[in-house]
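Why run this: before we spend reagent on co-expression, it is cheaper to look at a predicted model of the complex and decide which construct boundaries make sense. The entries below are exactly what would go into the expression plan.
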Amino acid sequence: MKKMMLAAFLAVLILCVAAFAAGQSSEGQSSGTGHPSDTGQLNGAGASGQNAWIEQFNDVCSATTASMALSKGQLKSRISRTDALKLRLDGLEESAKKVYSRRLRMCHDMYDFSLKAKEKADTKK
Amino acid sequence: MMGPQNFNFAADPPAQSYGNIIMKPEGAKPVIFSHWVHRLRYTCRVCHFELQINFKAGTTGITMEDNVEGKYCGACHNGKTAFGIENCGRCHKGGAGPDEKEFAKKTSGLPTTEHGNRIDWNLAMEENYIKPADYLTAKPEKFQFNQAITIRAAWDYVPSAVFPHKAHNRWLDCNNCHPDIFDIKNRTEEQNRMESYFKGKFCGVCHGKVAFPLKDCSRCHLGMTNWR
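The model came back. Tokens follow.
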């Protein structure tokens, strides 16, 4: 019985890891097709790569106004997700890049500020 | 006690001119951008966070190409949200911005103050006289962070100043101030000097430009009188 549960657990774990890896690589691909100049794709493809990037940006960065409600762990995770998005900024068109590269930096810095504020409050306790 | 008597200010501009920005592009008539017209309908956050317009006139680098692509002014001046970008003359009007009459018409009934636009924007928002939109595309997750901070400097010759987060978070995104204007690291005495604000730093990024001016001493230093 115990063995079966262990096997089931492992299976779920493997599935999760696989799903995560698939998620990672499809994100990677969308940034590739999102760069019109290096793939020669039609504009449509560029726009969808760009939209995917913006969607993820909104997902990660919509909580800057609620950052003090996040835990330190959640803040750290958001910070590393902004780092990951930064690596794929080149997939954006020039004028979107102008706006979003700055917003991404601000978003990263806000989470970092809140993390520092929480760490400071902890050392005071 | 140090107070308003220790400072000198120029006379107030007319209420309808406070916060107006004159842009002088090459090859077209000047554009007057009125903050009061726009803040009746939108919070600062919309333009200065979502649309990434800088808190310093002439530094954003807005071009007509950006506008046509739906950035900056073009995010709203698209013929749907506001008049379209093809109405060149409505922006490139030269001269002054909206006049006294238009100002009176659009702002009648709002609570008043002594300086700046002579409008108590904080109260106008708090008491729902106006309901400016807080975003264009992505709704921010809101979390009440209402900490009021008393900023007490090392000196006792002046009543300490208050900084209410609540009054600011109605208009601004945390990210508008943190960490670019107010950081935890590198906090210096300079941050406690009126002189820095007159130079447009810290509180002076907004107060004296668009938010109520520094003459309104009593709104920050409770217990002080205003400059008259």
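DSSP finds ten helices and four strands in chain B. Strands of chain B lie at 20-23, 31-34, 148-151, 161-164. Bring this page to Monday's planning discussion.
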